[in-house]
Amino acid sequence: MTEHRPWRGVLVATALPLNDDLSVNYDRYAEHCAWLVENGCDGVVPNGSLGEYQVLTPEERARVVETAVAAIGGERVMPGVAAYGSAESRRWADQAGEAGCRAVMLLPPNAYRADERSVVAHYAEVARSGLPVVAYNNPIDTKVDLVPELLARLHGEGHIQGVKEFSGDVRRAYRIAELAPELDLLIGADDVLLELAVAGAKGWVAGYPNALPRASVELYRAAVDGDLDTALPLYRQLHPLLRWDSQVEFVQAIKLSMDIVGRHGGPCRPPRATLLPGQEAAVRAATEKAVAAGLA
């Protein structure tokens, strides 16, 4: 973990353990955060999409951040602060700072297809919290694309320090490096990890380490070190699971894998439905194969 850039390394976008009645199990969440760090991860990102932030009450959302900080320390916690309005995102950034966090992750405005001026104003407002902001580019879900030129502008104006890149277009890594060489590129989708690591990524906001942290961290370290003899076979072994991170059912898939390896994944809140039988069978088979290969 880097002191002044806490988003570097492997930060797990944490799944949130729910009880059978769909209430949040904070004790299990605290234990999960600690377990991830014990198994080599550098930190956590609570209240991302994988953490089902959209269906949490404000009280739950705040307590999730406080729970993570109490478990592993604020310097290891970079909460997602996405919200429909800039004022609400700013409030969540302020809450993160008060809880002891050192950075936040922010989607662009996601209530509508925002234009460039709105995107810049949104990031400027949240940056006023005083915490470093890592942008999250997910044009698939938000319909707003933080293209390299826009990222360079946001960085040049001091609004962002890094970007979680989820577009799937690995070519952007090189364009971002040309336009904003000091902007930290973070791997945003598990199934392009190797490609973005080789292209110079400084971190990974990761999904599947929720279930397989040691193997995932080994893969990341080998990839960023250019050790392809280690990374490529491991990547091929894990890819049948990693690719679920880019599917609509990624939360359900990762929680199922957690259950299979002996963690507590548990249910999801509506409107997320359970996996279809074929999907469940595919996730189960790939997870059991990874376990049999000693990757759990």
From TrEMBL:
SUPFAM superfamilies assigned to the protein according to its UniProt record, in alphabetical order: Aldolase
Annotated coiled-coil segments of the chain: none
InterPro entries cross-referenced by the UniProt entry: Aldolase_TIM, DapA-like
Family annotation (Pfam families): DHDPS
Alphabetical keyword list: Lyase
Domain of life: Bacteria
Signal peptide coordinates: none
Family in the record: Belongs to the DapA family.
PANTHER family: DIHYDRODIPICOLINATE SYNTHASE (PTHR12128)
Protein name per its UniProtKB record: Dihydrodipicolinate synthase family protein
